[in-house]
Amino acid sequence: MNAVILKPRVGYCDIGDRLVFLDVDRDRYLMIAPELEMAVRELVAGRVVDAKGLEALAATGLFISSHAAAGSSHPFSGIRPTRALCDRAEGTSDKLAFGAHYVAAFLCLAFFHLVARYCPLRMRIFLTTSLARSGEKALLLSKIPVLLAAFHSATLLFPRKDRCLPDALALHAYLALCKLRTTLVFGVQLEPFQAHCWVQHEDVVLGQDIETVRAFLPVLALP
After folding, report:
1. Does 74 reside within a domain?
2. pLDDT value at 125 more than 70
3. What percent of the chain has pLDDT over 70?
4. 167 in a domain, yes or no?
5. Which phi and psi angles does 56 have, rounded to 5°?
6. How far apart are CA 104 and CA 100, in angstroms?
7. β pairing state of 204-206 and 83-85
8. 78 Cβ partners below 8 Å, 6+ apart?
9. Max CA separation in the chain (angstroms)
10. How many distinct structural domains can be found in the chain?
């Protein structure tokens, strides 16, 4: 075994001197032993890790053997958010356009709240990211408030408990249908441990307050 790299759909972040991983395929957040964390840090720094250490990392199920150079594994490298758009009132003067957006938002929310919740996380992410591939980056931010206003109105029809993941998946898919490509970001915080999920366009958080998102360190971002 020459080197290891992160498996697809696995991300991690360095928080509180610990490494926290998200394994989408196993639908769980987890930590590894401190000695294995040291091996990961050695890889990231481009230093050599002995065969025993590489085998131990592969045994966690988070890494796979690879001929890639040491240091291929890396933590979250996306853009950290600096502002937010969570418009809930403006952009509703065009009632016909608002109504069409509302229907699209409702259908996306219904799917991810009522149907996709019975699917494993990997499948739910596959469904929303498949739609997201049709999104375009050309939509101006000035066009987004009406989309978010319609989405927020539609969310009021769905339970508010444990809503961050289905709402984020639905918003990611909905905005793709509206021709805006976004990023789905998962974040964590420690003491106590909490996980969160949000939708981001470049450095802008969509549909949530920036203060809420800033409390979490990104662990994985998916287009």
Report:
1. no
2. yes
3. 86
4. yes
5. -65, -40
6. 6
7. parallel
8. 183, 185, 200, 218, 221
9. 64
10. 2
Shared-domain flag, residues 118 and 146: yes
Domain boundary among 36, 66, 96: 66
Residue 78 lies in a domain: no
pTM for the model: 0.88
* Statement to judge: residues 41 and 95 lie in one domain: no
| 215 CB burial (10 A radius; 0-12, 13-18, 19+) | exposed
Which pLDDT belongs to residue 80? 86
- Domain housing 22: 3-66
Q: Within this chain, do residues 98 and 196 fall inside the same structural domain, yes or no?
A: yes
CA angle 19, 23, 29 (to 5 degrees): 55
* CA neighbor of 2 nearest in space, from 84, 83, 95, 67: 67
Residue 216 has pLDDT above 60, yes or no: yes
Residue-wise pLDDT tens digits, 99-116: 889 999 999 999 999 888
Percentage of the chain exceeding pLDDT 90: 48
Assign 202 to helix, strand or coil.
coil
